[in-house]
Amino acid sequence: MIEMTMQQVALAMNTRSPNRVDDGSITSVSTDSRAIEAGALFFAIVGEQFDGHDFVEQALSSGASACVCARFHQEQMNLSEGAPVFWVDDTVEALGRLAAFYRREILPASTIVIAVTGSNGKTTTKCMIDHVLSAVMKGVASPKSFNNNIGVPLTLFLADADDRYVVAEVGTNAPGEIAQLSAIASPDVAVITSIGEAHLAGFGHTRAVADEKTDLLSHIRPNGLSVINVDRAEVLPYLDKQCVGKSLTVGTDPRARLRVGDRISEIDRSRFTIDDRFDVELPLPGRHHATNAAIAFAAARWFGLDPKYIIDRLARFSPPAGRTSRLQIDKVTIIDDTYNANPASMRAAIDTLSCQTRGRRVFVMGDMLELGDASATLHRQIVQAAIDARFEVLVGVGEKMKDALGELASAGNGQRTIACDTADLAGDVLEELLGPEDTVLLKGSRLLELDRIVARLGDRAKRKSAVA
Description:
Elements: E1 4-5, H1 6-13, E2 25-26, E3 28-30, E4 40-43, H2 56-61, E5 66-70, H3 74-77, E6 85-88, H4 91-106, E7 112-117, H5 122-134, E8 139-141, H6 151-157, E9 165-169, H7 177-185, E10 189-192, H8 200-203, H9 206-213, E11 225-229, E12 246-251, E13 258-266, E14 269-274, E15 278-282, H10 289-302, H11 307-314, E16 325-329, E17 332-337, H12 343-354, E18 361-366, H13 375-388, E19 393-397, H14 399-408, E20 416-420, H15 423-433, E21 439-443, H16 451-467
Parallel strand pairs: 3-4, 4-5, 5-6, 7-9, 7-10, 8-9, 10-11, 11-12, 12-13, 17-21, 18-19, 18-21, 19-20
Antiparallel strand pairs: 1-2, 13-14, 14-15, 16-17
């Protein structure tokens, strides 16, 4: 982070600076009192499981230059006299205000902000862009999935004066959030990876999802760039939201200016072409990754990088954990796609597992959450697609998948079907079920915690190895 004065902090948040720190400065921003560094500005955020106001004294004793607290808590906190605290109406809103100021007034104009949104593929695409750019220039990308009204500001604060780029992930589960976060990030490059049936409890239908995601286009800086996947027709009516800059459409659709073709996936790699000129190989399965890689290709070309270099970097890309990560555990192939799930990503997972041609294929399907009134229908569709793919074993985890599997299992193609209430019970099943040459792909919403099954299988292999 570039150092900011307390006067700048107060100006950005539209509040007064504490007298004790009028001449001071901050060198980092944190919402975690356990990770405070000297010179930090600590924001007391109220979460579902904690209240940051309970840790203000701890943050100050750990070296924080000042804290930002909500006025509502002022009488309850019993702070020591003269404690360096900024009082605001809403600490999350104040965090966003400060980040927007940092983006507009502190970051150099030479630092390019790339904002990535979409129903699927945000984190993988962000990591691909960072992977390609980072070998030839200094920059930062959002940690994990920092994509909300706390994560986007914290990502911006990671950037230093000599960073050439910042890749920020921008998410939403309710109308208006993309516009709010885009105004903070003010991107030079806007990326829309996909449109799909995600967060329908908040949006109702995919047209509303497209409307929300494309709000990112309204906030592109002059002379900027948008890279948009147009494989879902719902996005097309909203492309005119972009008023400035250059627009590049990407996808398998013939209307895309940067065309993705000849997609082939094996269980350990995928291959495709870009623009009928460039042959690309990724060291991970899944034809759906081709469009994500093409977006990274387009962003890197905008920085002036050579196509051959970009393709070489993509060939060495490792996916983040839980996003088609391939593991070999005890002679079983595991495709860990446990991070999250919606109908489009579930169909991509089915397509990925279908490319395995030897051994039994085991598909572990966790509930897909936040799908509103369409939930039961969408779960039945995914189970039917898995049945049609003729996987040898189907394991449903969670109430919704159990119901859908129970309704459709009798119409299957001879598969073994197993329904489990929890990830722990599914883990019990898999420990007994899996054998050499099996391939298991796990996919479900985060709250199902299917990643615990992957960790459990790994621990079992370690125990067996230790005994041997």
